[in-house]
Amino acid sequence: MCSHYQLYSKAASFGADTTKGLIVGGGSAGANATAIVHLALDHQITVTRVHLSVPLLIHPKNVPEQYRAKWNAYEENKNAPMLSRESTVLLIKAYNPDPYNPLFSSLLWPTGHKAFPPTHFQICGLDPVRDDGLIFEEILRNECNMKTKLDFYAGVPHAFEGGFPELEISKKFVNDAVAGFGWLLANK
Q1: Taking the mean position of all CA atoms in its chain, how far away is CA 123?
Q2: Are the beta carbons of 105 and 149 closer than 8 angstroms?
Q3: Any idea where the domains of the chain sit in the sequence?
Q4: Residue 14: its pLDDT value, please?
Q5: CA–centroid distance for 56 within its chain
Q6: Helix, strand or coil for residue 153?
Q7: Is 112 helix (H, G, I), strand (E, B) or coil?
Q8: Dihedral of CA 24/25/30/35: which sign?
Q9: What is the Cα–Cα distance from 184 to 34, expressed in whole angstroms?
Q10: C-alpha dihedral (33, 37, 39, 45), degrees to nearest 10
Q11: Mean pLDDT over residues 67-74, rounded?
């Protein structure tokens, strides 16, 4: 398996021009791509844009004190369809991360988030990890003065668009992702 750096170093062979930067993104646990962004930035690799969909960004056992009052979805959405708190616990337990390791809990990144590039967020209201994304978006926008775009889907669960693609809100989610990438590409 290729490491991320090896893949980056071979980017030209894929027709990519890394001098223009990179867009990094992911959904759900894959939105922990924030750790890749932080590692890249810490090693002076240019990441110019980020897309985060229903991101899981903090271990439930290690929510920073200053954000605890805003981190309510884990309890509020404990019985949510698609991804309940119990399912979240089982998935995290299977992965078995160190709750204090910023590679899993990227809200804890030791060098902070000030260099984070413009970021598009897609967050579901009926999601136990809803507040991970909302808190990170607020950190980037308010504490770091970074550009963000937030698309919020009230009343729908984590990854609803994959389970129910025929719903209008699922189509909106997909269209918002496309529009979000357009925003990322246009944002300088």
Answers
A1: 9
A2: no
A3: 47-186
A4: 75
A5: 6
A6: strand
A7: coil
A8: positive
A9: 16
A10: 140
A11: 96
Cα(43)–Cα(184) distance, rounded to whole angstroms? 22
What's the average model confidence in pLDDT over 82-106?
Answer: 93
pLDDT tens digits, one per residue of 18-64: 777 778 899 998 888 899 999 989 988 888 999 999 999 999 999 99
For residue 77, the tally of other CB atoms under 10 A from its CB is 23
3-state secondary structure 78-119: CCCCCCCHHHHHHHHHHHCCCCCCCCCCHHHCCCCCCCCCCE
**Count of CB atoms situated within 10 Å of the CB of 8:** 16
* 101: three-class secondary structure by DSSP: coil
89-93, 106-110, 176-180 — which one is most confidently predicted on average?
176-180
Strand locations in the chain (E): 23-27, 49-53, 119-126, 148-157
What CA–CA distance (Å, rounded) separates 92 from 104?
Answer: 10
Task: Point out which residues pair with 52 in neighbouring strands.
Answer: 26, 121
- Please tell me the predicted confidence (pLDDT) of residue 10: 75
Which architecture characterizes domain 47-186 according to CATH?
Answer: 3-Layer(aba) Sandwich (3.40)
Say if residue 159's pLDDT is above 50.
yes
pTM of the model: 0.90
Q: Among 174, 172, 178, 67, which residue's Cα sits nearest to residue 130?
A: 67
